[in-house]
């Protein structure tokens, strides 16, 4: 498993967390390339956790007769146990997020040869219920050959120029998302005013070095690594697996500048949306939102319904719940404190809204994602 992408680095953190109570575990790390087979044959590990996107390498591993768990659903007909995110739900989350920005045009950048990329694209398109422009470029996971990279970025340039704008572009992961942002900068296409870019993995290197910084869908990669290690331990000790797949949904969208836009043309609705985003924890009444505009409540509510297909209260609850998800995973606060930080009057009120929206309780959600 290489460490050149954020997803793998986070998966390794989860593997490390699992191994802390297993002091006899010794690790060796290598990128999943065919030239790694020779030293694997010499070392003879007891088990392998691999980011298996190279078909030749994956097939050769099978000849070693060693327990293997894969952490990517990149290859068709791979018969190893799998721990990876639920890719259809990644595409669904991307579609709902970009659509909620008020955009009308959508596109996708990804590698049509890779199974998970196809799954994300298919779900993205299905959730939107409309045609989506596709730019098929190879990313496995980052292009090493300068000639292929030039060809891919040149294809991206021609494709971008033809797209209607403003447009929301969902990328298969943060690597092509950053390259897309670079091409936009080169072509003087404004991000996010003309092109809104959303990646996947929340790879801090790619997201922060991008200009502008990238918004990205956060994947429970550490939890995936933890569960992959647990599956491998069972395989190595001869315990039958209860399930050969672990595919949790994505966590949330981490918002940065590449999506910092409300694509609706209505300035009154923009003012209301910005106020909700910045003051969701303090809002006691929807009238406070209405006061940020020159409209009456009924008129503003009608515009929300027309442009966003949501009420102001729905938008407010979505913002509060998104923040609650973040705190449940990344903080040590109890539920009462989280409820207060998110603008709910009680933990019971938060739990009620959370379960209605996500079909699980806050405690169940935290158990699913926390390592």
From TrEMBL:
Q: Which UniProt keywords apply?
A: DNA-binding, Transcription, Transcription regulation
Q: Which Pfam families match?
A: HTH_18, Peripla_BP_3
Coiled-coil boundaries:
none
Under SUPFAM superfamilies, the record lists: Homeodomain-like, Periplasmic binding protein-like I
UniProt xrefs under InterPro entries: Homeodomain-like_sf, HTH_AraC, LacI/GalR-like_sensor, Peripla_BP_I
Among the GO molecular function terms of this UniProt record, one is: transcription cis-regulatory region binding
Q: Where is the HTH araC/xylS-type domain?
A: 270-368
Source species, domain of life: Bacteria
In terms of PANTHER family, this protein maps to: LACI-RELATED TRANSCRIPTIONAL REPRESSOR, XYLOSE OPERON REGULATORY PROTEIN
Q: What is this protein called?
A: LacI family transcriptional regulator
């Amino acid at each position: 498993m290489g460490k050149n992408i954020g997803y793998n680095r986070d998966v390794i953190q989860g593997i490390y967390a699992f191994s802390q109570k297993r002091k006899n575990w010794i690790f060796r790390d290598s990128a999943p390339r065919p030239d790694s087979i020779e030293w694997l044959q010499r070392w003879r590990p007891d088990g392998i956790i691999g980011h298996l996107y190279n078909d030749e390498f994956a097939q050769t591993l099978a000849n070693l007769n060693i327990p293997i768990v894969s952490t990517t659903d990149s290859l068709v007909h791979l018969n190893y146990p799998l721990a990876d995110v639920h890719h259809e739900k990644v595409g669904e989350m991307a579609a709902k997020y970009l659509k909620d920005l008020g955009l009308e045009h959508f596109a996708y950048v990804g590698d049509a040869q890779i199974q998970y990329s196809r799954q994300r694209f298919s779900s993205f398109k299905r959730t939107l219920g409309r045609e989506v422009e596709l730019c098929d470029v190879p990313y496995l996971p980052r292009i090493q050959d300068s000639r292929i990279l030039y060809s891919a970025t040149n294809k991206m340039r021609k494709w971008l120029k033809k797209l209607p704008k403003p447009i929301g572009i969902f990328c298969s992961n943060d690597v092509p998302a950053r390259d897309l942002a670079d091409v936009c900068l080169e072509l003087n296409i404004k991000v996010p005013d003309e092109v809104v870019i959303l990646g996947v993995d929340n790879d801090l290197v790619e997201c922060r070095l991008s200009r502008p910084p990238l918004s990205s869908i956060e994947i429970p990669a550490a939890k995936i690594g933890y569960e992959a290690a647990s599956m491998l331990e069972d395989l190595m000790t001869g315990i039958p697996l209860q399930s050969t797949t672990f595919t949790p949904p994505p966590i949330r969208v981490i918002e940065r500048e590449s999506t910092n836009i409300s694509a609706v043309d209505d300035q009154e609705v923009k003012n209301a949306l910005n106020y909700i985003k910045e003051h969701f924890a303090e809002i006691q009444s929807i009238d406070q939102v209405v006061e940020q505009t020159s409209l009456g409540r009924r008129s503003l509510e009608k515009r929300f319904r027309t442009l966003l297909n949501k009420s102001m209260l729905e938008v407010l609850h979505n913002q509060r719940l998104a923040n609650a998800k973040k705190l449940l995973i990344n903080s040590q606060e109890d539920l009462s404190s989280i409820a207060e930080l998110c603008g709910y009057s009680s933990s019971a009120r938060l739990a009620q809204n959370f379960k209605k929206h996500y079909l699980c309780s806050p405690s169940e959600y935290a158990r699913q994602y926390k390592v």
